[in-house]
Every structure is written in C-alpha cells, then in structure tokens.
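Notebook p. 47: complex prediction with 4'-phosphopantetheine.
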Amino acid sequence: MHKGIAIYPGSFDPTTNGHLDLIERGAKIFEELVVAILRNTEKSPMFSVAERLGMLRELTADLKNVRIDTFDGLMVEYAKSLDATCILRGIRAISDYEYELQMALMNRKLEPTLETVFMMPADKYSYVSSRLVREVAQAGGPVKGLVPEVVEQKLREKLDPAYKLRDVRMLEVLDRKAFDRKEKKRKKKA
Ligand code: PNS
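Predicted complex, structure tokens below:
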C-alpha cells in the first residue's frame, strides 16, 4: 500500500459504476484516497455539488480510507493543501489517453512533485461515462447496471418530478390499507 494521500478529482455528474470501481481499486492501493468534486461555476451540472457529495458519501460509506471533498481553483493547489502525493485518474480507452496525458503533463508542470497515477476500471465499464449516462437518462433510456442504484433513483427523481410524488402517494395508500386492517381487527375483537 502506498503511504500518504491520493486525490481522485473529477466532476462526478453523476457517479457511475466506473467511478466507483476506480475508487474501490484506488482504496486498495493508497493509504488515504480523497475523492474531490470540482465546484465549477461555469458548467451547468445536472446534479448540484451537494447532491453529488451526498451520493458519493453514501456510496463510499464502507470504505474507511476514502473521504469525499470538494475543491475549486487549481487541482494541484488543492492537492498541496492536503499534502497529497498522487493524483488518481481513470483511463477507459485510447480516446481518454490524449486528454489525460495533457492534463497530467500540465499538472506536472504546475507541481513537479505530484505524480499522476492511471488505473483502468473493469472492462465492462469501459464505455460508461457520466455524459452518456445523462444523455441516455434524459432521453428516457435505461441506465441500470451503469450507475449505482442510488444514482439511478436520483436520476429518476430529477428527470420525472412526478416520480417522487408517486412514491409518497404509494406510501400513503399502503399506510391507509394497514390502518384499515388494524381497525377491522379491533372492531372484530370489540
Ligand atoms: O471528471 P472530469 O470532468 O474529467 O474531471 C476534470 C478535472 C476536474 C479533474 C479537471 O478539470 C481539473 O482538475 N480541474 C481543476 C482546474 C485545474 O486544475 N485545471 C488544470 C488541469 S490541467
């Protein structure tokens, strides 16, 4: 296990099974892994930073050496503020390589002591990205198996506000049925 802190930075809008796979792999290699969500005011994300933070915290609650945080400004500055020694990034396919190489070399130029480490998620997630998940979900397609269940649920709530309401109404109906049954029993006894 590598001593010290590693940062896994990203947008996580939303977290996919590929992200989660990488977090689990990173947690086995690094003493402490900080998953850092970029607070980017320019982009208009699907999920707020608070929502992304909440989902990631829930998903990593069992991983004791994983912490979720947010940052803005330069990633290397944030990494330095934590005394981190490594940046963790995932590479899925050759198409990721060029962008990741550029970013790694720019980060090295900005902070030569910070090392970027690349890991590959499981090949079954090699085509999964947050952007495609958003696109499929927005068009009403299924994202089961591509994102964790909690994310799937949140996507459903976000894209179909009636869904949450339907859930609440269903609970009300079930509550009412349970109440009616109890009443029936009580009256029978009396
Ligand atoms: O999940 P993403 O959107 O591919 O993550 C990109 C991220 C957040 C890692 C990158 O945009 C970043 O580090 N931004 C912070 C600003 C910064 O340091 N830019 C210089 C990187 S070369």
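Notes: The pocket of 4'-phosphopantetheine is lined by residues 9-11, 38, 74-75, 103, 106-107 (CB under 6 Å). The two ends are 68 Å apart (CA to CA).
Next step: compare against the earlier run before touching the bench.
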